[in-house]
């Protein structure tokens, strides 16, 4: 019986480890998105200071290409909307992963208790 519980415990521990790795990866992606959000907000502020007499350039590969100010503002606004949506998606994903991690943690605790009981019940019979 203890052997079967140990196998379950091992499998559950592997699932728990995988969820923790996924949480770590998702947190890293979310941090990058936060950085992009901050950078794009700064760009939006800077573009807001300009008027139609200013020239805006967009970097495409190694080349700077002239871009319309309104087009640049629209592009940045769309980018901000996209990044905000992605952050919200990752927050929901992280919340779900945290719940799964908690569920795995509970199962691990209960399996450890089962294993201890099985080993304790087996112990007196050995003597």
TrEMBL record:
State the GO CC annotations: cytoplasm; prefoldin complex
Keyword tags: Chaperone, Coiled coil
InterPro entries (UniProt xref)? PFD_beta-like, Prefoldin
Task: Kindly indicate whether the keyword Coiled coil belongs to this entry.
Answer: yes
Database matches in Pfam families: Prefoldin_2
Q: GO molecular function terms here?
A: protein-folding chaperone binding; unfolded protein binding
Q: Name one GO biological process term.
A: protein folding
Indicate the secretion signal residues.
Answer: none
> Can you tell which superkingdom this protein's organism belongs to?
Eukaryota
Q: Give the record's family classification.
A: Belongs to the prefoldin subunit beta family.
Which PANTHER family did the record assign?
Answer: PREFOLDIN SUBUNIT 6
Protein name (database record):
Prefoldin subunit 6
Q: Which organism is it from?
A: Oryzias melastigma (Marine medaka)
């Amino acid at each position: 019986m203890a052997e079967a519980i140990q196998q379950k415990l091992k499998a559950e521990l592997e699932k728990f480890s995988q969820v923790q790795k996924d949480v770590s990866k998702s947190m890293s992606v979310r941090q990058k998105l936060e950085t992009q959000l901050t950078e794009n907000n700064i760009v939006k502020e800077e573009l807001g200071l300009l008027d139609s007499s200013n020239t805006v350039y967009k970097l495409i590969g190694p080349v700077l290409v002239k871009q319309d100010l309104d087009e640049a503002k629209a592009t940045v606004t769309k980018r901000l909307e996209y990044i905000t949506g992605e952050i919200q998606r990752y927050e929901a994903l992280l919340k779900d992963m945290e719940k799964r991690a908690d569920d795995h943690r509970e199962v691990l605790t209960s399996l450890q208790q089962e294993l201890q009981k099985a080993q304790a019940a087996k112990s007196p019979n050995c003597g």
